Amino acid sequence: DFADGSFNFLYSWGVTHHSENTGKILDPIARVLARGGRGMIMVYNHNSLRYYLKGLYQLYVRGLLFKCAKLDSLQENFTDGYFHTHYSPREFEGILKAKGLVPEKTSLSHMAKSYIPPMPTGIDNFFKRKFSWLLTAEFSKPQKP
């Protein structure tokens, strides 16, 4: 119920990717963000090591491959929320652009805990920098339509 352009900054951490339709969730965000306003949204990163390690574990070690499971559908076994979509940086930037928002920076971050507990800290930090689970997009709304 907020008026158009009500906010100069919008922040969403770990929410929009739990929608069945993330693009639809971005409609009111784009509407209430003021011209020249900025925002930051975190979603799950499809290119993360976590996505593939846990998915492949479910497929091959837990045997879900034999139940016709697919890597995308397996995420529900270890990801919170009923809906949980993982996005590549390019894909999420495209969604923002389609809503009239300008992606300015995407970055990766991860939880403090190790990907694989016995992994040396230096290697663990390398994987977190390159293949983290959390994708953060910073964006703005153009001054002029």
How would you concisely characterize the structure shown here?
It is built from 5 helices and 5 strands; from the N terminus they run E-H-E-H-H-E-H-E-H-E. It has 145 residues and is α/β, with parallel strands linked by helices. The two termini are 22 Å apart.
Write structural notes for this entry:
It contains 5 helices and 5 strands, in the order βαβααβαβαβ. With 145 residues, the protein is α/β, with parallel strands linked by helices. Strands 1, 2, 3, 4 and 5 form a 5-stranded mixed beta sheet that branches. The relative contact order is 0.22. The mean pLDDT is 87.
Q: What is the number of E strands?
A: 5
Can you give the mean pLDDT? 87
The separation of the N and C termini measures 22 Å
The major pleated sheet works out as: 5 strands, mixed
Structural class: alpha/beta
